[in-house]
Specification:
single chain, about 130 residues, alpha+beta, 3-stranded antiparallel β-sheet, 3 strands
């Protein structure tokens, strides 16, 4: 980016970043600034934008996320972590099924976070209880 040469005949505004990439950079009328934002013309579209919302909530994904969070602090006999893991798997499966039926994948992110948190909670419990040596 050449800060000394302004774009020819350009007024202050957002322009494609001279460094390249998928950003726009603010030109203040004299020089390029450090302010950037995503370029709307280059931002990828939501692949599910044309799909309808799922007919119901993905309660398995919600339960998996909540159990995963709970397992980080309280996981007796590994039950909470394992229940969160299983509920999250069911939530991901339901979200995938909805996509094949033409609906948005409701709860897919929640289920993924539930899987991760349940796994971490279970590993923490195993380490703290001395099951893993």
């Amino acid at each position: 980016m050449d800060e000394h040469r302004p774009p020819p005949g350009k007024a202050a505004g957002w322009y494609t970043d001279p460094r390249g990439g998928t950003l726009q950079r603010w030109y203040d009328g004299e020089r390029w600034t450090v302010a950037t934002r995503p370029d709307p013309a280059r931002t990828p579209e939501d692949p599910y934008a044309d799909l309808e919302r799922a007919p119901s909530s993905n309660y398995a994904a919600i339960a998996g996320l909540l159990l995963g969070l709970l397992s980080l602090g309280w996981n007796p006999f590994l039950a909470v972590g394992l229940a969160g893991f299983l509920a999250s798997l069911l939530g991901r499966r339901r979200a995938s099924a909805w996509v094949t039926e033409g609906y948005r994948p409701e709860g897919q992110r929640r289920a993924s976070w539930g899987l991760a948190l349940s796994t971490v909670g279970t590993v923490i419990t195993l380490l703290l209880e001395g099951f893993v040596r």
